[in-house]
Amino acid sequence: MPVTYLGLPLSIRRLRKVHFKPLLDAFQRKLDGWKSTLLSSAGRQTLVKAILTALPLHFMQVIQLPAWLIKHLDGIRRSFFWKGKSKCLGGHCLVNWNKCCTPKSTGDLGFLNLNLQNQALLLRLLWKLYAEPYSTWSTTIQALYGTRDVALLAHNNLLSHGLSDILKYLPFFSVSINSLGTDPSQSWRWTNSGIYTSASAYTILFNPRISSPYHRKLWKLRVPPKVKIFIWLLLQDRLLTQSNLLLRNWPTNEGCPCCLAGPLKTAHHLFLDCPLASSIWTSVQQLFNFPTLLLIDDLLAFWLTNRSTLGSEWDTIWAATNWTIWKERNNRIFNSLTKPLFLLEKEIESLVVFWKAFVG
């Protein structure tokens, strides 16, 4: 049986599922205490990042979490973010979770990848063996195995499962050390100071794809966080438009709720081609005294091309207009209510003024 120390199950043998029950129970207690139906997607995003993602970090500093546990915890985080529940079907998760865990610098949501963060935290223990000979961890390993040299430890067949798991990352650790006559405590290749940080290891382990200019602009929009998530979904064509509902085999009316045209209506139609959308964009041009709007046949290009001529002021106006069109679409479908064009114009104008004044 493992010994519990500071809330962690410690054992020379491999831990079993029952030993992780306290962690799973902690997740469930948090979920039970949240009124998720009252939260926006941005509110749920904050709770996932600040609470659910933080819960396993205590374990991850010294224990290699098994694959089944990471998959289970990711399932809870994913389900809560998309639906506010501990479980939900795949069709309700609008974007692949691996993409959601890609850093914001590449244009995605930046949820923590638990597997890579676990590796980054365990690498710190290798770093201590290498660069901090008088730390409690190093002296303990020295006393148990007669050496703290990670290369020698890697060939020891009598190591505990926990230490064996840590030494699996020795190849990455080895290429991350600058050993050309430098002080061991300042030999980490991935920071300017040469001192190990789990953040630098996580970044290198992730090896994210190169970001494009619009990614940085997206998360700097002066709009509420829930609108940023909406725009993120829009630019990936992941909103639940009629076409995407049909792809999921969910019941829907194929006609556009705003112009009643058929047959299959996409995000491109709803936000650009629909007569209502065209009228709204024309009104926006007049309302904000823009000389012209280039109605380009692509949602992303429509934003960025007009931005190049109209400046950053266009960002908030573009986001507010798309948000208003989406809300009007939902209002017509779910509440059978229709607003006249002049009220939609007023709504866009009010949103722009409010967001510029109060949203940083």
UniProtKB/TrEMBL annotation:
Family annotation (InterPro entries) = RVT-Znf
Reverse transcriptase zinc-binding domain boundaries: 196-281
Q: Name one Pfam family in it.
A: zf-RVT
Superkingdom, natural source: Eukaryota
> Which PANTHER family does the UniProt record give?
OS12G0587133 PROTEIN, REVERSE TRANSCRIPTASE ZINC-BINDING DOMAIN-CONTAINING PROTEIN-RELATED-RELATED
Protein name per UniProt: Reverse transcriptase zinc-binding domain-containing protein
